Task: inverse folding
């Protein structure tokens, strides 16, 4: 059984409440329950933090023992050299995920400090971006 972890960054704990026209009306916890049903042969763990250093600590903690990491660093994608360096430093492959198409948004969202060290990038498919990331590890 594959062992994956989804790591979500700042403000993603507000999915379903925050800017539903961009992020939808479903909470991530409800969506996670559906993912676990949809992928019964994959162990899916989940972690969310609004704190940059906690995200780096989690990447380092799981980055040598999991089969894959699905990372939505949210706004830190565009600002955190530290998270990009953490992704580069670990052995576990990371797929960078974004719910929205970051290239159709503000110009500062076009830069990612993670992409160059990620196994792949999936963006713009809403919450289904996480489904696609899970499929990428099969």
Result:
């Amino acid at each position: 059984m594959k062992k994956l972890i989804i790591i979500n960054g700042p403000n993603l704990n507000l999915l379903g409440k925050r800017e539903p026209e961009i992020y939808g009306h479903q909470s991530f916890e409800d969506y996670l329950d559906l993912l676990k049903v949809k992928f019964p042969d994959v162990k899916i763990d989940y972690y969310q933090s609004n704190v940059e250093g906690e995200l780096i600590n989690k990447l380092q903690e799981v980055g040598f023992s999991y089969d894959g990491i699905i990372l939505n660093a949210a706004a830190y994608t565009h600002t955190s050299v530290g998270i990009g360096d953490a992704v580069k430093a670990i052995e576990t492959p990371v797929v960078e995920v974004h719910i929205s198409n970051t290239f159709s948004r503000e110009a500062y969202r076009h830069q990612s400090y993670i992409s160059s060290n990620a196994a792949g990038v999936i963006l713009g498919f809403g919450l289904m971006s996480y489904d696609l990331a899970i499929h990428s590890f099969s």
Notes: Strands lie at 2-8, 42-48, 68-72, 94-98, 120-123. The longest strand covers residues 2-8. The helical segments are 20-23, 28-38, 52-62, 81-89, 128-136. The chain is about 30% helix and 20% strand.
